[in-house]
Amino acid sequence: MLGANYYLTKIITALAISIAVAFATAPLSIKIAQKLGVIDKPKDARRVHKNPTPRFGGMAIFLGSMAAMLIPAGMNNKIVVAMAGGLLMYLLGITDDILDIKPIVKFLGQLIIASGVYAFGVRISFISNYFGMTPNGSNANVILSEGVAYIITVLWIVGITNAVNLMDGLDGLAAGSVAIMSLCLAYIAYIHGMRLGSMPVCIALVAVAGGCIGFLPYNFSPAKTFMGDGGALYLGYMIAVLSVISPLKRATVVGALIPMLTLAVPIFDTLFAMLRRMLRHESIMKADKGHLHHHLMAAGFGQRRSVLIMYGIVGIMGEVAILISRELYKDAIPLFLIALLYLGIIIVPKRSKKGIKRIITQDTSELEKEYFTEYLNYERERRKELREAAKAAAEEQMAAEEAAEAENIKENQKDQRIE
């Protein structure tokens, strides 16, 4: 049996390769984007960038992570299936980047890829039952039927793929968030790896994280390039599939929650977006400015601070998943509540409209006007106070000068009487 040091060496090697390849190929992706005309132009209010930017950077992430995953350390058939599906998902994404295919065509492509992955054995076949126990005290599992397993697996893969795609709205947000989520899942796989045989999954997750890290210097605000749909769909797919492959659901009675908690922020943002659009009687596929990062931007935090705030929330949820994987539930609950508190603060505006429906459906353009009006009022009051303070100071100085002049007159009159 291979030791922990052997796998640790492979993990570090995979991380170094993925970072180096992604960092080295990102400039090449920019040149290719310029030749192909794959440029993201700020053509509507939903986009936050002001200058045309290449959006073919997903190539760097794809090449970096794939190069690192080719290391044959404990590689198994399911990892190979995940890589093959990742290639197809990346090709689907870059096809959309170049040809701008219809959303329904892209969605059907995702369904086909997810179905193919299921057919080759990557599937959610059971769910841990918290209340059911076997006679020896271990956890019972709810075995899913073939049809239910297919539906859950496909929904999971397609859902997480699109959730990560929706996160790609600010410079560095999707790449950094996926890096954090991948590293958290990789750490969980590592600490349980020797017992559950999840080391290949750990290596693959580290490779995905390294690809994101190597790409970030070119993608963090102000971005030199975007990952495009090629990178976003590939990352969402890989993190979804690798979390399914991992046998971690056998590690704890609530192990099925671990990937859901790690990916809680994109899942929450996607479900919230669907609810918001349904309440507005709009298509759930319609793009809008109601995502979490849009709320932060509307509050005036700017791109960099908004992204760092999102990193923090994603990191908190990743830590919650790590604690739960170790069955430290009491330690996980306070962090989970803190993350929920921050999400609530982001969503609910300072002066929220009455009714939960009005809060959910409120467009961030309204919030931007509200915060801008509030800022203008604050500036007016501040300048008014400054003017009043300056006027009071001038009056005080004038009074002091008049008093000094009167005192000088008295002194002169006194001197004249003495003479």
Structure description:
The structure is a single chain. By secondary structure, the protein is mostly helical. The protein folds into 2 domains: 269 residues, no CATH class; 53 residues. Helix content is 72%, strand content 4%. It is built from 16 helices and 4 strands. It has a two-stranded antiparallel ribbon with strand order 1-2. It has a two-stranded antiparallel ribbon with strand order 3-4. A hairpin with a 5-residue loop joins strand 3 and strand 4. It is elongated.
Question: Which key terms come to mind for this protein?
Answer:
16 helices; two-stranded antiparallel ribbon; elongated; about 425 residues; mainly alpha; 2 domains
Itemize the secondary structure elements and their pairings.
Elements: H1 4-36, E1 39-40, E2 53-54, H2 58-69, H3 77-99, H4 103-119, E3 126-133, E4 139-143, H5 146-167, H6 173-191, H7 193-196, H8 199-219, H9 228-245, H10 257-262, H11 264-279, H12 292-298, H13 302-325, H14 329-347, H15 356-361, H16 364-418
Antiparallel strand pairs: 1-2, 3-4
